[in-house]
Structures are given as C-alpha cells and as structure tokens.
Design a protein that fits this description.
alpha+beta; 2 domains; 5-stranded mixed sheet; 9 strands; binds iron/sulfur cluster
Length: about 475
C-alpha cells in the first residue's frame, strides 16, 4: 500500500531516481552487510551501475549518493552539507565507514564500476552491491532497482510488485477506499459524498493519526517554501561543466523591486498590489519553479514531488495558490497536497514515474497533472473537474523526452519546470472556470497512453543523454 507520503519525500538534489533512490539502496545494503556475523570478515564493498544510472549517473551525482548511502546517510535525515562532507572525507582518505560503523578501504576507481553498455531487462536503473572477504569470497550480494521518485526495490521485491499488479491484485485492499484507477477513485468519492482529498485522508488515517497527517503536510509545505526562499537568494553558477548561471535571484529582485526580504515575507504584504503587467503573476510562478530547480541542481534540500527533476512544479503552483488565490489557507494547502498525491499514486501504479522508462512525461508530465488537480481542488472544482484538470495536465505532455545535456539535471530541466507549472495552472482554470467536468479523454486513458508512449520511445530519449538536446548542444 502506498501513502501520499511515499510520493512526497523530503530529499536531496539533483535526482530522485539517480540520487535519492541509489542513496536509499546503498543505505539498505550497508545495513544488511552490518548484520553479517561476524561483520569483521568484510574486507571490501563493490558497486556496479547499469543502464541509465551508468550513462547519466555522473551528472546526476549518483556516485556521491552511493558513497553517502553506504556511509549511513539518508536523503531525508542527513543535511546536504553533512552528506557532501562525508563523501569528501571518504574520497580524501580512501576509507569507507560502512553504515557509519565499520571502517573499510575503498578505491572508487576499482570499487565503483560504471557499466555504460549494459542494461538489465527488469529496469534501466539497476545497481549491484556486493561485499567480499579477504580472499575475495562473496559474503553478500544484492541487486536493487531505482524505479523513479526515490522508490527502491530489491530484485525479489520488484518481481513481487509486478506479479501483484499483473494479477490485478488490489494492493490497497487494507484502505477504506481501495482505488487503483481514476474511475474507481471518482466513483468512490461520489458514492460516499467525499472530496478526493477526503478519500485520501480516510485512507491515510489507517496508517497514522490525524495530528501526524497534519504535521507531515505542514512539514512538506515548509520544506517547499523554504526551498523557494533559498533559491531566490542563492546566486552564482550551478555545479558541473555547463557553468549555468542561476537566474532566480535576478528575477526575484526585479519582481520584488529590489526588496531584501524573502518571497515568503515579501509576497504576503505585496501580492495584492496592482501592476500594469497582467501576466506578472505568471512570472512569479516561473520564478518559484526556477528557484526550486536551481536548488535541486545544486544538490540542495527539496521535496521529491513526485521526482526531483520535476520538483519545482508542485511548489510553484502551490505558492501561486497561497499568494494569489483569494482565501488561501492551511486547509487549502493540505487539500492541494492530498489531491495531487491521489493523482500521483495513479501514475505510480499504472504507468511509471521513471524518466528512464517514460521519458520526461513521467516526471514533468506527472507533476503537471498532479499540480493541476491540486489547484482545481483548491478552486473548489467538482470531482469531475479535478479529474479533467489532471487529464489536461498530462495530455499535453505526452511524448515529452528526457534529454538532459551532459547528464545534468539543468538543461532543459530547470526551465521545463516553469512550463509545467504554468501549464498546470492553465489546466486547472480550463477545467474549473470554463468546464463543467464533462470531457472527452478520461484520466485513466491518458495514463495508459502515457505508459504505452513511454514503452515505445527509443532508449536514447529516456534519461540516457544519447539523443535530443543532449547531442545537439555542445556541452563545453
Ligand atoms: S529532461 Fe525531464 S525527466 Fe529528464 S532529467 Fe530533466 S526534468 Fe528529469
């Protein structure tokens, strides 16, 4: 069973599938290794990367994530600076402190292997870990798959998951409202006279008490808005060979007329002020998205929503709601996140959040669809209008390729989030202000179309940096 809090993770940039997932996998392996008896027999740990992880992992900080995870760091518990310091020390001393407890020699040139020409059939993002004793005898080996959005499965777990999905098993049967399709979600909500966010809330109550749900939602918004604030005042160049200049601070100072206050302080006082430019609100939305994705590209703290590459869209649209929609309040923020989460769960179950499987439609497209539904809910859209908004949000991202230049989550990723955010607002407004909920293409059909399109796409357009902008733009 998945909770919306599995979908919205507090993580670290720049990638959910290539940074957050591998760090979690490495952490899990380290814990398994430490449980060996006696653990002192472990002499060395080695890692092999396959497919998309091997091809773009260097630009996505997969190496840093793996070393940090093996050292006992977790994306949600370890501050980004601590994590970087841990890896710097490891690289300087060639010593790995496995799980933070067992000191081992580690030579990155021989112990971390990038198999750029090999991809495993189960999933393009595969990692093998193994540890051996002094004479090279294997003590433990495990294969993990990072399937997008920070979700990680061992080989056995992935097999079980796929078997249960294929057999039609409803893994949500323990919830009061066990939906697996958009149609079921819509029908259940209508039959019980509940909103979509109320369906999710009832399901979440099975897992955790009311106060914890509220606290977690507050924390998600706190991290999202904190990320926007940091991004708006952090200048300089992004890491990596492209030497991309961070744009958010300049745009922020223009929009705020050189105020020194952070957006979260400045905007509440000035959001209602009139401007002669009727589209300035959209400029703010673009700024919010840029700020988050620049923070993400710099390896900062972000909410995986539902991935890191697309981490700016939901915070940008939620900030638009908070600052520019009259009557916005804490309940609305919760409603937005729960509704968006419901939509994200449908994509996770029936297609994929992984750009290595689906292209960028699996990241930016899904985030756009989720944000459109969340905003439609805050605009008091009906259940049908919310489903329509989510459907529009994806329909016009179908076929979106993933082609990051130099394997970095920078170009086209950062700017693409501004497009996803403004598209989501447009989708919500079309569905709620100018629609009555009736529409021609259902959300379920569009999710299935996205899945089929992702399967049909050539691998070079799926987070390999072997096609698209990645080969048509020189990276030096
Ligand atoms: S192009 Fe899209 S899917 Fe690919 S890394 Fe960038 S944001 Fe993620």
């Amino acid at each position: 069973m998945y909770s919306v809090f599995d979908l919205f993770k507090i993580g670290v940039g720049p990638s959910s599938s290539h940074t957050v997932g591998p760090m979690i996998a490495a952490y899990r392996f380290a814990q398994q290794a430490l449980a060996l008896e006696p653990r002192q027999k472990i002499d060395r740990v080695t890692i092999k990367l396959y497919g998309s992880l091997a091809l773009t992992g260097m630009g996505h900080a997969t190496d840093i994530a793996l070393l940090a995870g093996l050292s006992g760091c977790l994306p949600d518990r370890t501050e980004p600076e601590v994590l970087r310091g841990t890896v710097e020390a490891l690289r300087r001393d060639h010593l790995l402190m496995l799980g933070g407890e067992l000191r081992l020699p580690f030579d990155e040139t021989t112990d971390l292997i990038w198999l750029r020409n090999q991809s495993l059939p189960q999933h393009p993002n595969a990692i093998d870990f193994s540890c051996v004793d002094r004479v090279g005898e294997s003590l433990l080996s495990e294969r993990y798959f990072s399937t997008g959005g920070g979700f990680v499965y061992s080989e056995r777990e992935l097999e079980e998951l796929r078997a249960s999905t294929q057999s039609g098993t409803n893994e949500n049967a323990g919830f009061p409202f066990p939906f697996t399709t958009a149609q079921q979600l819509v029908d259940m909500a209508k039959a019980n006279q509940l909103r979509i966010d109320e369906v999710i809330h009832a399901n979440e109550l099975v897992v955790r008490p009311q106060h914890e749900i509220d606290e977690r939602l507050d924390r998600l918004w706190e991290v999202m808005s904190g990320c926007i604030d940091r991004g708006c005042v952090s200048g300089g160049l992004l890491p990596g060979p492209l030497k991309i200049r961070r744009r958010a601070p300049l745009i922020f100072s223009k929009l705020s007329r050189d105020s020194k206050e952070l957006p979260s302080r400045w905007l509440p006082k000035h959001a209602a002020q009139t401007t002669c430019d009727p589209l300035e609100q959209l400029d703010w939305v673009s700024l919010f998205a840029l700020a988050v994705n620049e923070e993400n590209a710099a390896g900062g703290r972000v909410v995986t929503a539902p991935t890191n590459g697309a981490a700016g869209i939901i915070p940008a649209v939620l900030s638009y709601y908070v600052h520019f929609v009259p009557g916005a309040d804490r309940d609305g923020i919760h409603r937005f996140l729960k509704t968006a989460g419901a939509i994200g769960l449908l994509y996770k179950r029936n297609a994929s959040l992984s750009a290595a499987e689906m292209g960028c439609q699996g990241e930016v497209g899904v985030a756009c669809s989720m944000a459109a539904a969340g905003l439609a809910a805050c605009m008091h859209g009906s259940i049908d209008q919310i489903e329509n908004a989510a459907e529009i949000g994806m329909e016009h991202n179908l076929g979106l390729t993933c082609d990051p230049i130099a394997g970095l989550v920078q170009v086209p990723c950062i700017e693409r989030n501004t497009m996803g955010a403004t598209k989501a607002i447009n989708a919500a407004r079309l569905a709620v202000l100018y629609g009555d909920g009736r529409h021609f293409v259902s959300l379920d059909r569009v999710i299935e179309t996205m899945r089929q399109t992702g399967v049909d796409m050539q691998a070079k357009y799926k987070e390999t940096s072997l096609g698209g902008l990645a080969v048509n733009v020189v990276d030096c």
